[in-house]
Amino acid sequence: MELEWMARAYMADDPVPFVSMDKPDFSKEALDKDWPWKEWPYRATRNRRMRDGSLQAVEVDVHPHPLCQAVLEQLREAECVQSGDRCRPIFNERDIVFANNLVLDVTYDAILTHRELVQGGGRIERVLTRTGVVPESEDELVRVFPDVFKSPVTARRDVQAWLELKRHFPNSVTAQVVGGSRNPEVCD
Residue 39's pLDDT band (boundaries 50, 70, 90)? Predict the structure, then answer.
């Protein structure tokens, strides 16, 4: 395993022998036999820091040996952060897109799937961009925005998720919610 070979250079004077996790010996009592990952890569849950103060959980590849994990993070995460810093976002306003599934030492404004990014955001964000308001009625969303919402079930699910986000983080969602108005321009 290349990662372990690179990390061994930093362990040359370590008195404790390095045990490779490429194919661990599960006959030893120290290793959990019920652990779901028997070979590299192992997975762990890490959290992304969001601008609104919340955390977003992401599954990432990890190495159980701390030094190997440090080398992995230096090769993987640090390179991505450095690429974001190269455009000098402190001095110049920039929109930076990290198109990966890693947990970087940055504060995220939004996490979108590739499809959402290409379409201009999620369904609610696209409605907000157009009008600045979101009708709470799923029937009204389907009627007014048939190109965005194909069914009332999809509209209901998206509105409920958006209202839950607004309830937990009221300062992160700045749009106005319209309660069942027949005219999308009317804001009560």
Answer: low
